[in-house]
Amino acid sequence: MAAGRGHPEAIAAVAALPSPAVLLHVGKGELRGGLEAQAAKLGAGARNFWAGYEEDGLPELYRAMDVLLFTASGSEQGQRAILEAMSSGVPVVALDLPGVSDLLTHEREGLVVRRTEELVPALLRLRDSGDERRRMAERARERALEFAPERFAGRAREFYAGLPARKSSTSRAWDAGETEG
């Protein structure tokens, strides 16, 4: 719960939703007190739950969600939470941040919006359409499995095997025609 991690935007979005919408915060950080105060000020203090930092119980927390609301990049711009939620069969509502569209397709595994003002309508859309939410959840799980180590390694091998051999301007072995197989 550090600066720039999207918690204020997520709190504001959930505060704008009708009850019983709740927000589950997973993590720790120096800003938690201020975030709790923001939720209370918006009248949504009782609808924000603070799970703290969690590793072992994370899959259960994801499975308790109807939707993952992703409003800021993770640490070092990692979007690990998106794949974790999707692997648990949870559709995603996310801001269009770097890397998000590499993991999910708008209107397939979730909804990708360009501005924070679009978060509430996206969340309402999935709340109001259980069938669409379930379809997205199924597709999210299928998509996340594409990133499983075995599948990913196979695709990576195919990619590298298909690269044309290139002469490197920095390699003396290439210049001398001396390459090892």
How would you describe this structure to a colleague?
By secondary structure, the chain is mostly helical. The protein has 9 helices and 5 strands; from the N terminus they run αβαβαβαβαβαααα. The chain has helices at about 5-15, 30-40, 60-65, 80-85, 100-105, 120-130, 130-145, 150-160, 170-175, and strands at about 25, 50, 70, 90-95, 110-115. The strands form 2 sheets. The chain has a 3-stranded parallel β-sheet with strand order 3-4-5, sandwiched between helices. Strands 1-2 form a two-stranded parallel sheet. Helix 4 crosses helix 7.
Describe the secondary structure blueprint for this structure.
Elements: H1 7-16, E1 23-26, H2 32-41, E2 48-52, H3 58-63, E3 68-70, H4 80-87, E4 92-95, H5 100-103, E5 110-113, H6 119-128, H7 130-145, H8 149-161, H9 172-175
Parallel strand pairs: 1-2, 3-4, 4-5
Helix pairs in contact: 4-7
Question: Can you give keywords for this protein?
Answer:
181 residues, mainly alpha, three-stranded parallel beta sheet, two-stranded parallel sheet, 9 helices, 45% helix, 11% strand
